[in-house]
Amino acid sequence: MAQFGALQKAYIGKAAHRLGFRPDPCLQAHMTDQTAGHQTIAQLLQQGLYHHRRGEIQLAMDRYADVLARDPKSAEALYYVAVIACQEGQFQQGVDLVRRAMTFAKPEARMLNVLGQALDRLGQPLEAMKALDQAIALDPNLAAAHGNRANILVDAGMPLEALKSFDKALALAPDSIPDLINRGALLAPLGRYQDALRDYDRALALEPALPEVHANRANVLKDLAMMEIGAGSTDSAHLDAALSGYDRAIKIEPRLHEAFLARAMLKLMRGDWVAGFEDYEHRSDVGRLGFTPLDEPRWDGTPLAAGERLVLLAEQGLGGTIQFCRFAAVLAAQGHDVTLLVKLAMAPLMSALPNVTIASDADAIRKEGRPFRWLPLMSAPHILGTTPETLPAATPYLKADPARVAAWAGKLGDAKFKIGINWSPGHADHSVTSQRDIPLAAFAELAALPGVELIALQKGAAVDDIAKVAFRDKIRVIDADTQADADFFLDTAAVMHNLDLVIGCDTSVVHLAGALARPVFTAVPVISDWRWMLGRDDTPWYPTMRVFRQRAPGQWAPVLQQIAAAVRERLA
Q: Would strands 15-18 and 9-12 be described as parallel, antiparallel, or unpaired?
């Protein structure tokens, strides 16, 4: 019998999405004493189920409606109508129907399984978990309930408990494609890449035309390649295999934007920027849009009309704006009348860009009455056909305010070798971390160097880490850029001009240092962002930057030891 799609998550990279709705493994009538005594109702149910399995939903609903017209208390019909409601995204209706069914018949595991899934979709994970636990208590062999329970545990940040539930689901139903996909997606971030590949391979053996699985499998291969290169290999065959996987996913589903975006990252890492930036255009169709589109025409690179201006929209994070704002100056140098639209607090920093108008209000631009076309800032390299060899890499392209530089020179003094440090992306919630975060304790060897003073450039909750390390007295906390919504980075830029070196993780701080042409050491995880490319200790983006890479996930101590050794060379 055909199985419904699972109400579970399949992962493409880091983004999760649902695969449909899964009731019990096979849609079949559970004939109660009541239905057995009414053959006409039983026949209608069987007809409804026949159409339901074939995906003929309206015909199935007609038969279920006939049953309910004859017997409004038919738990069987109510259950299957609830399933359809959930398949159509009407989860509250599904909850109401299942609960009604359970008032007319003894609750069954399959009913509680559907109830749990629907409650999860309604944002009630605790109630959903209760329902699924009840389903498992009634029928410990209901694999779907174990798999759906695992998904809630994944969302709750309990991966090891989720893995136990996935293992149970697959022990009961080894060929459950949704559970194979979801367990693979869980195993990969746990570092069990080969196990993840086995799950994906099994799913593809059962159903080869699953584009998301080809993309997920390619992601695992890409990560394996990055770890091999991080460990010292000059190249990895996994890179070509990953590229082929993305190609297969896109061939099966040409609208799978996540696969295009993942392929873009791989191509950009490898230096194939023309093709990579072309694929990168699919970022606008994945997740939350990184910019607010304007109503005016989008620029496609064709010549602008006389008097027409070009408005570039800053997008994504602050680091992306700092890194890509150079292209505004490049386009201005080509003769375009360029306006860069940024957050109001970023406008003062961006004002150093030559021949570029800085704005923070699209309506104000419109009120000027001049026609314009717009472009997301990070689409500029695609329009320009930028390669690593043609990248505009001259620095500095941003500047610090001279008065602020002088003021900070007086505050900081010049007695020691001053190093600005940044160890976290600056999460608002201290419980949130990422693979970019470096434990502040790893900076101990750096703090112990004679004649060195550490200056904290850190913002956000991670500042609290200073009080927890033994070398807290070696870190100077400065009162710079205290207002998060005003004049971003003006003080920090001035401070950097009074530092001998900046050392940080992959954040806007190191991008700012690079854009200012300040000496900067950037520490990146072994599975790093595309912009740091592969296996390089330099970057075409910033000539004054040196890149230090992890050799294995989570191992920051060796990276900071290498950085400390490099600082010793500068001190010698």
A: antiparallel
Q: Give how far Cα 27 sits from Cα of 226, 342, 441, Å.
A: 44, 54, 56
Contact 522, 505 (CB under 8 A): yes
Closest CA to 155 of 180, 114, 119, 191: 119
Query: CA 448: distance to chain centroid?
Result: 37
Q: Domain end: 384, 419, 435, which one? A: 384
What is the per-residue DSSP string for 262-331? HHHHHHHHTT-HHHHHHHHGGGGGSSS-SS---SSPBP-SSPPPTT-EEEEEP-S-HHHHHHHTHHHHHH
Contact 266, 239 (CB under 8 A): yes
Please give the residue range of the domain that contains residue 52: 9-191
Count of Cβ atoms closer than 10 Å to residue 41 Cβ:
20
- With 0.85 as the threshold, say if the pTM is over it: yes
Handedness of CA 150, 154, 156, 157 (dihedral sign): positive
Could you tell me if 369 and 489 are in contact, meaning their C-beta atoms sit under 8 angstroms apart? no
Chunked mean pLDDT (size 10), the chain, 572 residues: 29 38 54 48 91 91 92 94 93 96 96 96 97 98 96 95 98 96 95 96 97 97 95 91 98 97 97 98 92 95 95 94 98 97 94 96 94 98 98 97 95 91 76 80 96 94 94 92 78 96 97 98 96 96 98 95 97 88
205 occurs within a structural domain: no
Helices (H), 105-192: 109-121, 125-138, 143-155, 159-172, 177-187
Same domain for 485 and 375: no
